[in-house]
Amino acid sequence: MGRFGLRLLMGLVGLSLLAFYGLAAWLTYALLATFWANRPPLGTTVLVVAGMTVVFGYLSYQFGTARILSSLDAVEIPRREAPGLYDRVDQLAAEMDVDSPRLLVAEMSLPNALALGSAGNGVVVLDRALFRFLTDEELLAILAHEFAHLESRDSLVQTMAYSAMRTVVGFVTFAFLPLLLFVTGVARAMAWIRGRPAEWSKGLFGQFQLFVHNGVALVFLVLTLLIRAHSRRREFAADDRAAEVTGRPLALARALSKIDRISNPDWGLLSPLYTRGDEDNGLGRIFSTHPGTDDRVERLVERANATRPQAIRLRY
């Protein structure tokens, strides 16, 4: 095939791409236009979308909890084998607005604890190593921190927030989809016609497509940062609640310091649930779901120095 034949073939491919993307853009636009023309009242639309977000978020929460427990291969601690531990757990639960949760032990990738569920049907999973290097007082402080998460239903709230974020990003993406398809088709078609298909993103239309794509990504990023910031605030709140109930903020500070010294976690399925913050640099901190351990310990030490132990006392 000569040079002219090759250019002709590439031109035909470009026109085919333009037709394909143009048709996809038109069909998507027609679907959006039909929906808009037959849209229900705004209040009804908001209620339906909000309801679907809540339903899918709750289902994600339930399946996610089951998936995590399955991945951990955790074993429930029988009450008859640890009566002293359960006595302290029952007393702690009585001081807080939670039912006594199930206590499970697992071999995690690092010594840690996590709370799943809510105040009425919670589960607390403890890494087996915590029983070796934490004192009874420190272990109870960690349990109080996890109970605080159950009390405020933090894991459910976080799951709902992520579900709402996916809904918002989905609507934004779908609203811009006809334009994105059309611009992408033009950019790819022109690149093939020019004989440089690999450089389709460098032209004017390719740059515009990238601009819109980055705009949607920016919405996703901002919402993610807001959710992560809320998560860090909830960690501080759980620390404060644990210190309030036990009256021993230094016990929690010591426990967090011990966990931090021996932990070096990698990002994975359970990372958003871990007790410690694992990012030291500035960018890592704003993306982290947990505050830095140093910040948490400093707040607890300041609390211990500023106030005397409260009247609530748990037996050890």
From TrEMBL:
For this UniProt record, the keywords arranged alphabetically read as follows:
Cell membrane, Hydrolase, Membrane, Metal-binding, Metalloprotease, Protease, Transmembrane, Transmembrane helix, Zinc
- Which cofactor(s) are needed, names only? Zn(2+)
What is the UniProt remark on how the cofactor binds and its stoichiometry? Binds 1 zinc ion per subunit.
- Transmembrane intervals: 12-36, 42-61, 168-190, 210-227
Q: Which family does it belong to?
A: Belongs to the peptidase M48 family.
- Name used for this protein in its record: M48 family metallopeptidase
Q: What class of enzyme is it?
A: hydrolase
Query: Biological process GO terms, please?
Result: proteolysis
- EC number(s)? 3.4.24.-
Gene3D superfamilies noted in UniProt: Metalloproteases ('zincins'), catalytic domain (3.30.2010.10)
What PANTHER family does the record point to?
A: PROTEASE HTPX, PROTEASE HTPX HOMOLOG
Question: What's the superkingdom here?
Answer: Archaea
Fetch the Pfam families from UniProt.
Peptidase_M48
InterPro entries assigned to the protein according to its UniProt record, in alphabetical order: HtpX_protease, Peptidase_M48
Instruction: Provide the taxonomic classification.
Output: Archaea, Methanobacteriati, Methanobacteriota, Stenosarchaea group, Halobacteria
Q: Answer yes or no on keyword Membrane.
A: yes
Q: Where is the Peptidase M48 domain?
A: 84-303
Q: Name one GO molecular function term.
A: metallopeptidase activity
